[in-house]
Amino acid sequence: MDLHHTHNVKDLFQQLGLEDGDAAVERFIASHRLRPEDGELYRAIFWSPSQAKFIKESIEEDAEWAEAVDQLDARLRS
User: Fold this and answer.
1) In whole angstroms, what is the distance from residue 17 CA to residue 31 CA?
2) pLDDT digits over 1-46, tens only?
3) In the chain, count of helices (H) and strands (E)?
4) What InterPro entries would the database entry show (predicted)?
5) Which domains does the chain have, with CATH numbers?
6) What is the rounded CA–CA span in Å between residue 25 and residue 39?
């Protein structure tokens, strides 16, 4: 049995307490675009302190959520 679960961006939105429907995810991404000079994803001004902490720790600890965080980061910058 595989105990490792790969999370996707929709799962990440649910984990962060954000609306996770497909249209809601796309709206969020469209309205929260980031530029390279905006720095690391967790520093974005639109996160609550707890959301920013979760994102930062996911990356720093290469946690099970790191891949979904990376995917969201890439989509916000594309």
Assistant:
1) 17
2) 445 578 999 999 999 999 999 999 999 999 999 998 899 999 999 9
3) 4, 0
4) DUF2789, DUF2789_sf
5) 9-77 (1.10.10.1130)
6) 21
